[in-house]
Amino acid sequence: xxxxxxxxxxxxxxxxxxxxxxxxxxxxxxxxxxxxxxxxxxxxxxxxxxxxxxxxxxxxxxxxxxxxxxxxxxxxxxxxxxxxxxxxxxxxxxxxxxxxxxxxxxxxxxxxxxxxxxxxxxxxxxxxxxxxxxxxxxxxxxxxxxxxxxxxxxxxxxxxxxxxxxxxxxxxxxxxxxxxxxxxxxxxxxxxxxxxxxxxxxxxxxxxxxxxxxxxxxxxxxxxxxxxxxxxxxxxxxxxxxxxxxxxxxxxxxxxxxxxxxxxxxxxxxxxxxxxxxxxxxxxxxxxxxxxxxxxxxxxxxxxxxxxxxxxxxxxxxxxxxxxxxxxxxxxxxxxxxxxxxxxxxxxxxxxxxxxxxxxxxxxxxxxxxxxxxxxxxxxxxxxxxxxxxxxxxxxxxxxxxxxxxx
Length: 407
Fold this sequence. Notes:
Pfam families: ResB (PF05140). By secondary structure, the chain is α+β, with helices and mostly antiparallel strands. Among the domains are: 77 residues; 95 residues, no CATH class; 87 residues, no CATH class. The strands form four sheets. It has an eight-stranded antiparallel beta sheet, with no helix packed on it. It has a five-stranded antiparallel beta sheet with strand order 1-21-20-3-2, sandwiched between helices. A five-stranded antiparallel beta sheet has the order 9-10-11-12-13, with no helix packed on it. Strand 5 and strand 6 form a beta hairpin. Helix 2 runs antiparallel to helix 4. The two termini are 49 Å apart. The mean pLDDT is 85.
């Protein structure tokens, strides 16, 4: 019987060679995408979003879908196919004869975890049926990830700079390179930058002559004694942007007041005169520890959501993730923060696909699928290893099974 056109197409779509060629083609063109570098817009991802690259991915998806349908059909027809194999004497990997009736073997097989299917004088014993579906679950997971990636095209990624105390409901869409409405307004209420303890030098000067009296190398939380008195100072904080130093003046353990010192003449005390003039004269380059943006989400002029955004901790509202990507002060000393806004409707599908992919791999490798055929003869049974007993390890497993059944 000559194969039909549809059977030829199905055979081509499910061919492992086609899968291999598509994967090699994708790997080869991906190399050029890496070597080509960024586009004029400074984006590497545009190469992989081109139409011809997506056509390669679509061809791989069609191939994977055809293979998935084939494995589902194969799994559903396993029992009837294995029963036919018993009659034809095909698909067997090993066989042996046990001088006992099959009714005596059934309890022993069930004790080994096998499930029995009886049809006349023929019987199939299966174990690890879930493992048979492992490869199918892997195929479906890959398709789910692809669908999630396709659904991501319905989302967007954009950015916006917002000053502290201001609000905005527009972003610059990266794909269209134009402004778009968010659907809500973001107000930046406050911004704080935290640094690891900064080593700095503090110099004490005489109030009148401004001659240097003493210099200390210290950091936040440390304490030093002031010259010519019983007073000491504890460093509360130091802002490397404004170069403002905040000190607590103490006598023993009693706090007498605050002292704030900056560059130039921006030095003043609060509540107590320390008797000297203190300046921060040098400091090491600060190392950023964390940044915090306190924002309010507004809809129709009303606050509906408030939260704090920090590195690796975005704020999510209506499926839009708000990330903090940059911060700076302008020449007048006002803080502004760069935010990235992204909506990815395919993200749940991708995560679900990753979870089921791991589950499918676990089933495929950790739950071996084994099938034994039992054919009754006069006063004995013939056992044939149908599935899962190939190779040296399979031969040993079959020998161990028959030894237990004989025992």
